[in-house]
Amino acid sequence: MTVLVAGTVRVPPENLTAFKPHMDAMLAGSRAEDGCLTYSYAIDVQDPGLIRVFEAWRDQAALDAHFQTAHMAEWRSQWPQFGVSDRRLSLYEVAAERAL
Hints:
Alpha-Beta Plaits; 4-stranded antiparallel β-sheet; 36% helix
């Protein structure tokens, strides 16, 4: 069963440029993982401090493995210095998918 993670985090807009290399490293590391189907961040057009997160994983085991990676630990260690806050992520279990 595919697992989706979707939601938001906040970064002060003035920190986004300095934080971007860390976002890029997290994207590259996560996208290279076995079981990662999609991994993306998007800065909200009308709220520049709001980062939208969307991930799709082959299954829960792949997501669990993701949480144990070195790049995840490095990613989380960067949050305090860049003011990452207000993490609001939800997990969705997808039983079926169809194109719209």
